[in-house]
Amino acid sequence: MIRPDRENVTDILCIGAQKASTSWLHHVVNAHQRTYAFPNSAPVTSTNKEAHFWDWNHHRGLDWYRDLMAPPQPDRLVMDFTPEYSLLGQEKIRECKAINPTARVIYILRDPLARAVSALRMHTLWRTNRAAAEEVEIALDDDFHALVKKARILEMSSYVYNFERWATAYSDILVLNYEDILAAPVAITERVLAHCGLSVADMTPEARTEYEKRLQKRVWASVSYRITPAAAHFLHGMLWPKRQAAERTFGFAFTEYRNVLEPFDAA
Asked: Residue 226 — left, alpha, or beta (φ > 0 → left; ψ -120 to 50 → alpha)?
């Protein structure tokens, strides 16, 4: 049972997308004195941001998750920003809803090609043990196809399908465009805070100062491993239907793919 002083185990859930500024958003929102990030328990969790309960740690049981997420004061809003949650099946989403009935859910979407390239660079970094940018090239070969599969590029880019599964349980998901975060970080963050029942006006002076500092930070950047034109255009074709579906459904206009392709097209 959920403790009587806590309606949800987790109050704020960010379900992705991977490589769409979820780390930055978590860092900024966590400046508010009413939010709470669980203690870093790596490698069981990923820093104090990604609990990975519904994918890596589900076998540990609900009591483990409840203990991990328990805030020092009951009125603090507990956060779990795990991008892999966007891929959960219907059964686990229903289970999530049962223990987090009023959680606020956030889903950040990024241009599928730009997101895929960033994700492949991240996986390449892990695979090559942090090789320098000039030492690695992502080329269209057997290793590339294995990497695309391992990084779950298609699944992570299936924004509409992922959203629709979650929307069966949570009818008011806040869906954001990564490009809007880049263009207007203050306005977007204020939308997120409002979605969670918070505001900048509620912040203590100390929290407000820290919040404004964090707005200027970049938390994580992928190593800029070169990707060949053939690999980039392969991804572009593979993901084009995902982009079109997301743009139609959410009314977004993704433009980042041009930054990936223009250097090749101009050559």
From this structure: beta
Local structure of residue 204 (DSSP, 8 states): -
Residue from 116, 112, 64 nearest 242 by CA: 112
177's tokens: 């465009």
Average pLDDT over residues 251-261: 94
pLDDT tens by residue, 53-97: 999 999 999 999 999 999 999 999 999 999 999 999 999 999 999
Residue type, 51: A
Orientation of helix 229-250 relative to helix 112-127, angle to 10°: 130
CA distance 75 to 240: 44
- The whole-angstrom separation of Cα 117 and Cα 238 is 13
Determine how β-strand 226-227 pairs with β-strand 137-138: parallel
**Alpha-carbon torsion 237, 242, 243, 244, what sign?**
positive
| Ramachandran sector of residue 244 (left: φ over 0; alpha: ψ -120 to 50; beta: rest) | alpha
Read off the pLDDT of residues 103-139 as tens digits, 9 standing for 90 and up.
999 999 999 999 999 999 998 887 777 778 788 899 9
pLDDT for residue 3: 47
Q: Read off the tokens for 142.
A: 């057997």
Distance CA 140, CA 30 (A): 40
Which residue carries 């239907």 as its tokens?
241
Distance CA 45, CA 56 (A): 8
Indicate the residue type of 238.
M
Domains of the chain: 12-265 (3.40.50.300)
What lies within 8 Å, CB to CB, of 40 at 6+ separation is 47, 48
Rg of the chain taking only CA atoms, in angstroms: 19
Question: Whose CA is closest to 21, among 111, 88, 96, 89?
Answer: 111
Please give the pLDDT value at position 1: 36
